[in-house]
Amino acid sequence: MTQATRRFAGIVFLAQGVPAFAQKPTSPTSASAPASQAEPNVSAPGDPTWMVADIGIALVVGLVVGYLIGAWRSSTKNRASHA
Fold first, then answer.
1. What pLDDT digit, counting tens, does each position of 25-82 carry?
2. What's residue 4's pLDDT?
3. Domains of the chain, residue spans
4. Side-chain-side CA neighbours of residue 31 (13 Å)
Protein backbone atom coordinates (compact mmCIF):
# COMPACT_ATOMS: atom_id res chain seq x y z
CA MET A 1 0.00 0.00 0.00
CA THR A 2 1.23 3.44 -0.76
CA GLN A 3 1.40 6.19 1.81
CA ALA A 4 -1.48 8.08 0.17
CA THR A 5 -3.70 4.99 0.23
CA ARG A 6 -2.98 4.41 3.91
CA ARG A 7 -3.67 8.03 4.73
CA PHE A 8 -6.96 7.93 2.78
CA ALA A 9 -8.01 4.71 4.54
CA GLY A 10 -7.23 6.25 7.92
CA ILE A 11 -9.30 9.33 7.12
CA VAL A 12 -12.22 7.16 6.00
CA PHE A 13 -12.13 5.11 9.21
CA LEU A 14 -11.78 8.16 11.45
CA ALA A 15 -14.59 9.98 9.64
CA GLN A 16 -17.04 7.38 10.94
CA GLY A 17 -16.48 8.57 14.52
CA VAL A 18 -16.63 12.33 13.89
CA PRO A 19 -20.33 12.70 14.87
CA ALA A 20 -19.62 11.16 18.27
CA PHE A 21 -16.84 13.65 18.95
CA ALA A 22 -18.99 16.56 17.73
CA GLN A 23 -21.62 16.07 20.45
CA LYS A 24 -21.69 18.50 23.34
CA PRO A 25 -20.74 16.90 26.64
CA THR A 26 -23.53 16.79 29.22
CA SER A 27 -23.04 17.03 32.93
CA PRO A 28 -23.83 13.82 34.84
CA THR A 29 -26.26 15.66 37.14
CA SER A 30 -28.55 16.97 34.39
CA ALA A 31 -31.73 14.97 33.90
CA SER A 32 -33.25 14.33 30.51
CA ALA A 33 -36.74 15.17 31.79
CA PRO A 34 -38.11 16.77 34.95
CA ALA A 35 -39.14 14.36 37.70
CA SER A 36 -42.70 15.72 37.68
CA GLN A 37 -43.49 14.28 34.25
CA ALA A 38 -45.47 11.03 34.12
CA GLU A 39 -43.86 7.89 32.71
CA PRO A 40 -45.03 7.33 29.12
CA ASN A 41 -46.97 4.18 28.35
CA VAL A 42 -44.50 2.11 26.32
CA SER A 43 -45.85 -0.99 24.61
CA ALA A 44 -44.51 -3.28 21.92
CA PRO A 45 -45.95 -2.67 18.45
CA GLY A 46 -48.26 -5.36 17.16
CA ASP A 47 -49.47 -8.61 18.60
CA PRO A 48 -46.66 -10.86 19.92
CA THR A 49 -48.28 -13.99 18.47
CA TRP A 50 -48.07 -12.49 14.99
CA MET A 51 -44.39 -11.73 15.52
CA VAL A 52 -43.81 -15.39 16.42
CA ALA A 53 -45.79 -16.46 13.34
CA ASP A 54 -43.73 -14.13 11.14
CA ILE A 55 -40.51 -15.70 12.42
CA GLY A 56 -41.92 -19.18 11.84
CA ILE A 57 -42.94 -18.31 8.30
CA ALA A 58 -39.50 -16.83 7.62
CA LEU A 59 -37.83 -20.01 8.92
CA VAL A 60 -40.00 -22.26 6.75
CA VAL A 61 -39.36 -20.10 3.67
CA GLY A 62 -35.62 -20.22 4.46
CA LEU A 63 -35.70 -24.01 4.73
CA VAL A 64 -37.55 -24.37 1.41
CA VAL A 65 -35.24 -21.96 -0.39
CA GLY A 66 -32.19 -23.68 1.10
CA TYR A 67 -33.48 -27.07 0.00
CA LEU A 68 -34.14 -25.81 -3.52
CA ILE A 69 -30.67 -24.28 -3.77
CA GLY A 70 -29.11 -27.51 -2.51
CA ALA A 71 -31.10 -29.61 -4.97
CA TRP A 72 -30.13 -27.28 -7.84
CA ARG A 73 -26.43 -27.43 -6.93
CA SER A 74 -26.59 -31.21 -6.59
CA SER A 75 -28.22 -31.60 -10.00
CA THR A 76 -25.60 -29.39 -11.65
CA LYS A 77 -22.82 -31.46 -10.07
CA ASN A 78 -24.45 -34.67 -11.32
CA ARG A 79 -24.80 -33.25 -14.82
CA ALA A 80 -21.17 -32.11 -14.79
CA SER A 81 -19.93 -35.52 -13.68
CA HIS A 82 -21.79 -37.31 -16.51
CA ALA A 83 -20.54 -35.00 -19.22
1. 666 555 565 566 566 666 666 666 667 788 889 999 999 999 999 999 998 887 777 6
2. 76
3. 48-83
4. 5
Residues with Cβ within 8 Å of residue 9, at least 6 apart in sequence: 1
pLDDT of residue 2: 77
Half-sphere exposure of 66 (CA within 13 A, CB side): 6
Pairwise pLDDT comparison (2 vs 56), residue with the higher score? 56
Distance (Å, whole) CA 13 – CA 32: 31
Cα angle 61, 71, 77 (rounded to 5 degrees) comes to: 150
Residue 26 backbone zone (phi > 0: left; psi -120 to 50: alpha; other: beta)? beta
Q: Tell which residue, 51, 71, 75, 73, has the closest CA to residue 83.
A: 75
CA dist 83 and 79 (Å) reads 6
